[in-house]
């Protein structure tokens, strides 16, 4: 009971503080300022409506629990469109072919990058008189190689998931 009374008194104190007077003051150049004191010249008190109070939810209120993936039903709704197995196999084969083509292109790109990278010492170009430019290009090549390796790994994982 004491805790409830303390909470009620704190809430009332907050409302009392929030309901302090507000004044609008017009400056010499016509600008308006809103203040909580009206001690300066040209200030007028503004009547504000009382704040709206919203009651707390009852003590018996329980927050809805979000469903986990395991708790959700696995079946699709009855009006969900169905695809026959033949059409799905065609789609899966198309997807497999697309992934295989992407894998082949990525492996070809990787081979070209490795050849150009030359074990970490690519040939310097004529526009790289400044050594820092050469180092930037080598660093960029390392990033491109790492990205190509990750792409190849991801494509292989995706193909393995289809089988």
In short:
Helix content is 50%, strand content 8%. The protein is mainly alpha-helical and 163 residues long.
Task: Write a structural description.
- This protein starts with a helix and ends with a helix.
- The protein is 50% helix and 8% strand.
- The chain is mainly alpha-helical and 163 residues long.
Secondary structure: elements and pairs:
Blueprint: H1 2-18, E1 22-26, E2 32-35, E3 43-46, H2 85-117, H3 131-162
Antiparallel strand pairs: 1-2, 1-3
β-strand number = 3
Classify the helix fraction into a percent range.
40-55%
Sheet-strand content, in percent, reads 5-15%
Number of helices: 3
Spatial strand arrangement across the major sheet: 2-1-3
Largest sheet: 3 strands, antiparallel
Q: What global shape is seen?
A: flat
The H-and-E topology, N to C, reads as HEEEHH
Q: Estimate the mean pLDDT confidence.
A: 80
Looking at how many chains there are and whether they match, the oligomeric state comes to single chain
- Any idea what the radius of gyration is? 35 Å
Pairing-aware structural class of the strands and helices? mainly alpha
Low-pLDDT stretches are none
Count of structural domains = 2
Distance between the termini: 66 Å
